[in-house]
Design a protein that fits this description.
Number of strands: 25
Strand content: 15-25%
Distance between the termini: 85 Å
Structural class: alpha/beta
Largest sheet: 8 strands, mixed
Strand order of the largest sheet: 8-25-24-23-9-20-22-21
Number of helices: 34
Length: about 850
Amino acid sequence: MKNNFSKSADEVLASLGTPINGLAEEEAAERLSKNGPNKLREKKKKTLFQRFLDQFKDVMILILLAAAAISFVIAIIEQDLEGFFEPALILLIVILNAIVGVLQESRAEKALDALKSLSAPHARVLRNGSESLINAADLVVGDIILLEAGDSVPADARLIRSVSLKSEESALTGESVPSEKDAEAILPEEATVGDRINMVFSGCSITYGTASAVVTATGMDTEMGKIANLLDNEEEGSTPLQQKLAQLGKYLGIIALACCGIIFVIGLLNSIPALEIFMTSVSLAVSAIPEGLPAIVTVVLSIGVQRLAKRNAIIRRLPAVETLGAASVICSDKTGTLTQNRMTLVKVWADGTDEPETVTLDCSEEVRKLLLYGTLCCDGSVVFHNGEQQDIGDPTETAIVLAAHRNGLPKDEINVKYPRLCELPFDSDRKLMTVVNQMDGKYIVITKGAFDMMAPRCISGDLEKAKALCESMSSDALRVLALAYKEISENPDDPKMEDLESDLHFMGLLGMIDPPRPEARDAVAVCRKAGIRPVMITGDHVVTATAIAKDLGIFREGDLSYTGAQVDRLTDSELDEQVEKISVYARVSPENKIRIVKAWQRKNQIVSMTGDGVNDAPALKAADIGCAMGITGTDVAKGASDMTLSDDNFATIVEAVREGRGIYANIKKVVGYLLGTNIGEILLVFVAMLLWHESPLLSMQLLWINLVTDSLPAIGLGMEPVEKDIMTQPPRPKKDGLFSHGYGVKIILQGLLFGALALFAYWFGKTQTGSVSGGQTLAFMVLSLSQVVQSVNMRSEHSIFTIGLFSNPKLLLFEGISIAMVALVLFTPLSTLFGLIALPGVLYLIGLGLAVSPILIMEVAKLIEKLFKKK
């Protein structure tokens, strides 16, 4: 059997059993059931058991288990029944820690899997003669797909029809220049992938033109599927913050190990049994070394990602969450982002008439002619399913198509009556689209696009009046398109812009309104309050853009509006001088967008940029946070972005920045909490060994505190709601680290506080009970409970009484579980196994007072800091 690329399109359709109007839904469902979804095989995930074993790869855990095994063997040799308990308890606690670690990893993985499903690609498909948008995974062999510039090709397919089609195939062929495609070509069977100009391939993208194609291979049968095994070897990268924390963890680990080594030596010199002091030292190292910091940050990031997804912001790359909260400039498109993207054609002016006509269901013949020609020059369509309207394609085009439909000119019918023969697709440089249609035996060229790009190409029409009307309609915040035509003698075999888009006859103007989003005005005000500069960047007319920007509060007195042409005339240094004064950029090119981003970045600003077109991809990559449009955005734009807005809404960007600030604040809280408590543990044991040559805590007591305080309260802190005043603070400067502005000093001081409280508790408990066990019991109670209490303090830099004690119910739940776990070993028969003893009631009350004292101390510290800030 011949390969699909060596057959004609008709032969391929026949061999796949595909009618020209596409597969029936029932047939497609049957093929999907038989052949499976259109997906590449994913990297094999680790089983729960493998993940569980991974928790024991840490060197200190292995040393601790080895020490427990030695203790176990000694207990057997000495036939010491009580000696079995300690190694058994250590093993149990280590297993519990491992289970918690696996649960944390699973939670993070589920969040990231949910992200993948949220950002799953879609495909435009023709089934039962109707065009619809489906998940790319539901495509089957034999489906007819529709492609245009910016689309990712969802499956391998044989072209049926192509117009000026180019596909970027470097992922398959290594060729950086887009490949020109031709549906009419029939190739020899030995043609290589790079030479198959009548095929498009899964995972590649359309850079220019339009096409329809029939799917010939899906999933692992595609060319991309054949190299999927190479993709399996890709490793998941860490975020910059995770890398910094991993490095910090190593440094702190070295310090902790040095302290543990000194503790071990002091213990030996003071005749503490070697195994006992060795296990205490190793347990302290396991508890105090913050090797879990990157993992807990992943959990906090994944919690934040889930929150963002609920707010219609789909994060594609985890590092974007870290950057998001620091955004200081938001460069936003106008159409659909700041406006509702509900384009409605309201005014039409036909050349030769006096005034623009309001669009109704019964327009004049002159306006109906413009609607007819305009619809023929549109790729967008409006379909009706069970009485419900679905707009497919660019909203500007669907507004024209809908107005024509309501005036008795349905697109499907006029496309059959006046078939399109060839086209020059729209691109953002020339801002025009041109088609050639056969109309009543004549070849008619129709061009639509921006008036200022159209006017120089026209040889007839009242262009002066058209210019004045265009300005007037734009100042009323209407988006204006111009329409022109000409007759040619024959259908061009190789349509060229210079041939088709010249010597045109001007037909008129189409004015459509896209009202501002009601929430955009408030979102702009929030930006201003948060020290974030909103900037409008649009391909629209400068007058229209400025009118809407003024209405929204983006353009204020003294601000400037620049066109792309004006930006082109500026050098980089001149743009740097002006960039902070310019609030509106109109008629911009993709190159202009990159220059604007870089100008702001040279001012040390963190820039968020929105985009939807294939040519926007470089600007999205250049920005610190690239935001692609989820509704109107092309697959290429989404692929280049860090975040996709599923509702194309400016308010969502602002909300995402708010959440980003909250996520970063929560990471700071978690890191501060974990480091502060770990410092407290090291200081307690280290200073006690120096002063009294005694271990204030046994190995299993240290491990239990680690289990109680290091996991649940930390995760609860990561779920802290975003603080109400977070958007009244200026953006975080680019150079600021996690421990800037004295935060590192605060953490050390908090560690000193825990160490001092527990040290006093050990001394007091020992002197009051006359036994080391009494001191250890009180120290255990104070250190573990004070660390749980500290999770309350870490919730905010404000007083906990102003933010509400019950505003984070998850943290309350986790704190309750932690306290119950402490009580379990203090007040049940388990206390004996942990080397704890019953204390007089007054000592428990004193211990409780010491444990809750950090709340009072921290509240006073917060008040003093607040007073100093006011000064």
